[in-house]
Amino acid sequence: MAEKGTISIHTENIFPIIKKFLYSDHEIFLRELVSNAVDASQKIKRLASLGEYQGELGDITVEVSVNKKKKTITISDRGIGMTADEIKKYINQIAFSGATEFLEKYKDKGEDQQIIGHFGLGFYSAFMVAKKVEIVTLSHQEGSEAARWICDGNTEFEITTAKKKDRGTDIILHVAEDSEEFLEDFRLQQILDKYGKFLPVPIKFGTKEESVEDGKDKDGNPKHKTVKKDNIINDTDPIWTKSPSELKDEDYLKFYKELYPFSEDPLFWIHLNVDYPFNLTGILYFPKLKKDFELQKNKIQLYSRQVFITDEVKDVVPEFLQLLHGVIDSPDIPLNVSRSFLQADGNVKKINGYITKKVADKLSELYKKDREGYEQKWTDIGVFVKYGMISEEKFHEKAKDFTLLKSLSGKFHTIEEYKKHIEANQLNKDKQHVFLYTNDEAQQHSYIDNAQKRGFDVLLLNDVLDSHFINHVEQKFDKVSFKRVDADVVDKLVETDEKKESVLNDKEKESIKEVFEKAINDKNNTVNVEAMATDDMPVMVTLPEFLRRMKDMQASGGGGPMMFGEMPLNLSVAVNANHSITKKIIEAEKEEDKVALAKQAYDLALLSQGMLTGADLTNFIKRSVDLAVS
Ligand code: ADP
Q1: Mean pLDDT over residues 48-56, rounded?
Q2: Mutate to test the pocket of ligand 1, among 90, 128, 134 (most ligand atoms within 8 A of CB)
Q3: 441: nearest Cα among 420, 460, 413
Q4: Which residue lies with its CA nearest to atom 8 of ligand 1?
Q5: pTM of the model
Q6: Residues 288-302: b if buried by 16+ CB within 10 A, e if exposed
C-alpha cells in the first residue's frame, strides 16, 4: 500500500532554491550521501561490537555505481538501514527543517557560498543534481520490512514497501538533464578522490585492472596477467588516526607524498593529537618555503571525521600557519555557521592557540636538541618563524628565543646572543646596539667592506619579510637599532661622540661643498663635507635608513605610507674631507677642472651603489676613457 504525504516545510517548492543557492558547489551531493552511508555503516559496526546487533556484519563496503542508460547514480551501503517510520522521522522532518533553516539564514548572503557547501545540507543536497530521488532501505532491526521512498523534487513524497533482502540503504539519484556531467566516471572518481580519500569505511567505485604475477615462463621469468579488482578509492586508516608511537619517519614521508605527489620532502612535521577540551588530530608538515610563499597557501586540508571539508583553512588556522602543509581533522570545528561566527567561536580560538603552541614547542625542541641542524634549516624556516613572530603575539613570546640572525661571517646568533656579540664596538652614544645589515651582498659590497674593516659585524637580511621583521625586533627588543650598511658613511653607522680631525679648515670645506653642489646640480641632494679616514671613498652617497626602509616596506606590500610614489631620492652626499682628492680640487686652477674632478668622484660613488645609469653612465665612461688615454 502506498502512503502519500507532504513534506512539512513552509516553502512551496524548496528544490529550485536549493539548486540555485548551492550552485557553485553541486559536487558536494556525493560527499553528503557517501558520508551518510559511511555513518550508517559505522553505526552497524558499533552495534555489532556492543552485541546489540546479532546478525552477520558481513562486508560493509559502500558502493557508488552509475547506470548510464537509466541515468542514475546509486549509493549503496550495508549499514543500519531505516524503517518506514524512521524515513518519515529522519528524512521528511528533520532533514528538511535543517534545509529550511539553512535557506532562511543564507539566501541573502552571496558571500557565504563557501559555507553553504559546509552546511551539511545532507541528504537533500541530492536534489542539486537529481530530478527524482529514491531511497530503498531495509533496517537492521529484526523483522523489519523494506521501504521505498520516492520524491521528485516537489514537496510531495511517497512511501511504499519494497523488496530488498540485504540490510542497508540504496540511494538512487535520477540525474537531471543539466547535471549529466555527474554520470561520467572520471567526474565521480574526481569527487570521490577529493572528499573521500580517507573515509573510514571502504568505498568501492567500479573496478580497475591490475597486473598480477601468474606463474613463470619457460626461462623462469615471472609472467603477468591483468585481473579486474574492486576500485576502492580510499585509505580507511590514514596515519593521522594512528598513534605517533606506531609510526616511523618513512610513514610520515610516504603520507606527505600521497597528499602532495610532486613536492619535495618536508623538513619536519608535528603530529597533533588532543581530545580535551576539543577533539583534534592531524599532521602538520613544514615544507621548504619558496620565496613567493603567498602561492603556497591552501595546502592544509581540513577534515571532519575523515571526511574532507575544505582546503581553505583561513578561519581555523592562524595566518602564518597556513604556510604549513598537512591535515587537520576535527569534529569540533563548527562548519554549519557563518564565517564571522566561526572566528568568534570558542573552539576555533582554542584550536588556533593549541596549534600555535604546538608549532612553537616543536621549533623550540629542534633548536634545543640540535642547534646545528636547526641552523641548517634556518634558511627554509626563517621566513615562517619571522612571519609568525610578527603576526602572533603568543608565537613571538616563544619564538624570540629561537629566532636566528645570520652574519655574513656565516655565524648564527639569537637576538640576545647577538646583542652580547656586538656589545664591544657596536654601541652608539645612546647605548643602542646597532645591528648592521645588508640585503644585497653584491650591490653593497664596498659598504660591507668598509664596515668589516672597521671591525663591525654585518648581518644578512634578505628575506621578503625582513623589512617588517626589522621593525618588529626594534619594537620588541630593548636598545636595538638596525641600520643598513649603506645608510651612512662608515663612521656614522655607529655614531659615537668621537670626532675625527679634518685636514680642511672651515673655509676650505665650504668651497669644496660649493664645487660639489655645482657638479651634482640637483637640489634634492644634500652635500656635506666630513672628516673620514683617508682610505675611505672620496665620496659616499647614502639614502637615510628611515627613508629607505619606508620604500622597502612599501615594496614588500603594506606598512609604509603611500607618499613615495613619485618622490625624488633625496640622497645624502658625503665628501671625505680627508681624502687626497679634496686637496687636488683646492689646488686645481680652473673652476671647470674643479667641477670635473668633483663630478667624477660623485659618479664613482653613484656607480658603487649601482645608481649611475642612462646618459650619466655613458658620459662617465667617455670621461674615464679620455682620462685614461690623456
Ligand atoms: P545528517 O546526516 O546531518 O543527520 P542528513 O539529511 O544527511 O542529515 O540525514 C538525515 C538522517 O537520515 C540521518 O541522520 C540518518 O538518520 C538518516 N539517513 C540518511 N542516510 C542514511 C543511510 N544511508 N542509512 C541510514 N540512515 C540514513
Answers
A1: 92
A2: 90
A3: 460
A4: 122
A5: 0.76
A6: ebeeebeeeeebbbb
